[in-house]
Amino acid sequence: MDAAQQEATARARELQRNWYGEPLGALFRRLIDDLGLNQARLAGVLGLSAPMLSQLMSGQRAKIGNPAVVQRVQLLQDLAGQVADGSVSAAEATERMDEIKKSQGGSVLNNTTQSTTSSGAPTVKRVVREIQSLLRSVAAAGDIIEAADTLAPTHPELAEFLRVYGAGRTSDAVTHYQTHQN
């Protein structure tokens, strides 16, 4: 990739951060992980071609042009949160994804809707998911585990933090967060 392509990709990711709250690559990878999908299945549920999904994830394209796809992304984010907190089973999630795939409405993707409580404070789960997203945007899970193993002998608490937030399940991270907030 030459300098002009790198600059265009960086610009596209910045636009995605402004429009969707984060780069779509990070958002889609989280949906894939949380819902147990692959890229082809995610593309199918969203109503995108696999190449289009890939271009959005890599920053070759900045914007989702179809409002119905934007709404499906929001619905999948909500579903992923419910799967992660255990309120929706894997079987129910599969059924819901089939319903989401058929939905036709349009809306603006709004990360703030589900991210705060009625008092305006971020939910514990949202804080945890932001920490996970940040760690996972910096390094792959295997690298995070390797770093945790390196730290474990001298800094076991930091090693645990890296393992739980960098490579663990959201539900475990929520428990860890709640335990260490009190």
Automatic annotation (TrEMBL):
Residues 104-121 have a biased composition (Polar residues). Residues 99-121 are annotated as: Disordered. It comes from the Bacteria. The keyword Ion transport does not apply. Keywords: DNA-binding. GO terms for molecular function: DNA binding. This is DNA-binding protein. It comes from Streptomyces acidicola.
